[in-house]
Amino acid sequence: MIFCETGGSDSAAYDALAVFLSQLRAHELPVVVAGKSMPEDLSAAHQFDLSSFISNANPQASDSLLILQAEELSQVKANEIRNFAKCGSLQCMAMGHFQTRQSEITISSRIAHAVNQEPVLFSPPEIAGLPYTGVPIFAAPVAHMPRSKPTVGLFFPDLEKPNAREAIRALALSSRFTIEIITTGAEKQKWIDVDGYNVPVWHLGELLPRALAARFDAAVLFAKPSTWPRFQMLVANLTLAGAALIDATMDRLWQQSRPEMIAGPVQISDLADWLTKSILPNLDEIKDTVTSSSLAAYFKLPDILAGLREPPLSQKPARKAVKPPVLFIPTNGVGLGHAKRCSLIADAMRDAATPQFGAFPSCIGMLTASGFDTVPLVSRTQKQASHKNDIVNLARLSAAAKEAKITVFDGGYVFDSVMRAAADHGRRSVWVRRGLWQASQNNQVALDRQKTFSRIVVPSEAFDELNAPARYDENLVQVGPIVQQTLQDTKEKATLRKQLEDNLGLHGKHLVVTMLGGGVAADRRAQVNTVCAHLEGRSDVMHVLVVWPTATTDPGWFQYQNTRVVQSVHASVLVQMADLFVSAIGYNSFHEALYGKVPTIFVPQMASFMDDQRARGKAAADREVAIMLEPWELLTLTKKIDECLDGQSDVLRENLRGLNLPEPGIGAAAQSILEIAQ
Q: What letter would DSSP give residue 279?
């Protein structure tokens, strides 16, 4: 392994280290960073950047050490390296800007004392047209992201200039290309506060340069050359990828020293016509010119670093052609509903792809039972900052996604781990995003991070008024409801019902299934106890209380003779056999009840972060195909249960049979994802 360290101690030093590691890893160098060397006050963004490089291994004699910005190495940090390098003599290369011979001697002496060997000192060469940083600036291979039309990046436009915002909004309307803005974090927030999310905006620290460069066919540079290594590495990657590099600075600061740069309009309002006539028709020719230019040669990986590659142990056998892996990431809270939708879609694409999952422990049993390989993710806890476990998840997802052709996310909140794994290596990605958000819901993160995804698949609701108004968006595909196929064979249902009675030791004319949700939004014990206690007095009923497999159950539920508590991943089958279903109104349970023609009493589970369950229940109740009660209507709940068991269920079932429901969208969703993967 190659352990990497920085001589600096501030945020900028670790920013440069993260970018440097990312670029080297792309060149297949086995670089890591010692977990013990990470400062406790490192920003969350840099922790995410470095997460996949951290190692707790101790160095061996065969390992080596790279020190970035070695000219800043203090004696204190040199002592830390000595304490770390306990294996004896450790080969070391120190890179930096050594202004005098004396500074070289001083740093060399410190390092030699720390690693018991004279280091190799390396001063990165200057690159004409870029300010010198002392950090090696080199390009990394960029996997081009397939696109329906070219994407143009506007790098650091001055949004305060008169009419700049209006010009960008007009530019975004072009049918010939798409645009994205890259700016600072503060400027990004200003743009969103005024203009919203119609134009995707990135701040330069959101993704590492390799992932960001993969997004663009042309880059319009409004800012002068910077000493920021992250920005210089991004320019290097864009050069290697053959993007059109356009100088839009007033003084032509890029083009003066670099002939590969194309002088472009300074005014944003002039860009649309110029790009359409001069750049877009010539992208292939521009790519050939840029990739063979002297600038591209400057951005080659330095030979001294390339020599650190480990020789292959043996010739690897040619890999057999396999179906492309597709990584599904269902998340948010317990995540069972998201995982269920993903499993249905994944099952529909088994013939064309190899579905894999990254999921929380609550979902792993269900996914494993469905035959899917699953990487366990770490749930958030109250013991530490919320982003800590997400950093672990990023490392796991990055490893799982390494071979994946595409990532598929199903959830409402796009975590940092999901965004970065979806965008890494120029990978294409899909967001399966159900609608029906509450009007008061805060969707700022979702709206901002939807720019990461190549396609958004929206499973529709069963009733038209529950679906958002149709709008044109070439990246958005609406499909029918994602719902499991129901049991239609009466004989099969009867056989399963008999098996259930024998297994549970319950017998009765009516089967009531209660599934009121995971308690994520509210404590449902009052409703559950009400149902259990009431049904205890009915000898004609057998009551099955379904909870998710990893749920905490109330001991009081086991006292009822007429109720059985079932922890199962096969709740859908139980629901389809029910004569009456008492349920929360999540997307999956709602549609399974409707499509299975199961008489249901719906009780919404509501919270600020959830979809609008009450709207679903009202839509069904208005059509007289279900009953909806508020959580506090406990006396009415017992009354409605009796009415249903004494005849109202037959009316509801007959009304359900008369519904004209949309065609399920499982196959369409799978095909839409495969189109992106292929």
A: I
Residue 526 phi, psi dihedral angles, 5° rounding: -60, -45
Residue 231: helix, strand or coil by DSSP? Answer: helix
Helix (H) or strand (E) holding 456: strand 455-459
Higher pLDDT: 442 or 495? It is 495
Q: What is the pTM of this model?
A: 0.86
CA 474 – CA 477 distance, rounded (Å): 8
Q: Are strands 563-567 and 541-547 parallel, antiparallel or unpaired?
A: parallel
Question: How confident is the model over 170-197, as pLDDT tens digits?
Answer: 999 998 999 999 999 999 999 888 888 8
Task: Evaluate the CA torsion angle 134, 135, 139, 144 in order and state its sign.
Answer: negative
- For tokens 């901002």, the residue is 448
The pLDDT value recorded for residue 334 is 60
Strand, coil or helix: what is 563? strand
How far is residue 442 CA from its own chain's centroid?
19
Beta strands in 275-387 (DSSP E): 325-330, 354-359, 373-376
Strand 428-432 vs strand 406-410: parallel, antiparallel, or unpaired?
Answer: parallel
Q: Is there a contact between 418 and 342 (Cβ–Cβ < 8 Å)?
A: no
pLDDT of residue 362: 80
Residues 6+ apart with CB under 8 A from 525: 519, 554
- Contact between residue 2 and residue 29 where contact means Cβ atoms under 8 Å apart: yes
Could you tell me the pLDDT band of residue 116, with boundaries at 50, 70 and 90? Answer: confident
In order, the DSSP letters of 94-127 are: EES---SHHHHHHHHHHHHHHHTSPPEEE-PPP-
Longest dimension (CA), the chain: 96
10 Å CB burial of residue 87 (0-12, 13-18, 19+) is middle
Closest CA to 238 of 268, 212, 207: 212
For 135, list phi and psi in degrees, rounded to 5.
-105, 135
Element (H, E) at 671: helix 666-677
pLDDT recorded at residue 390: 87
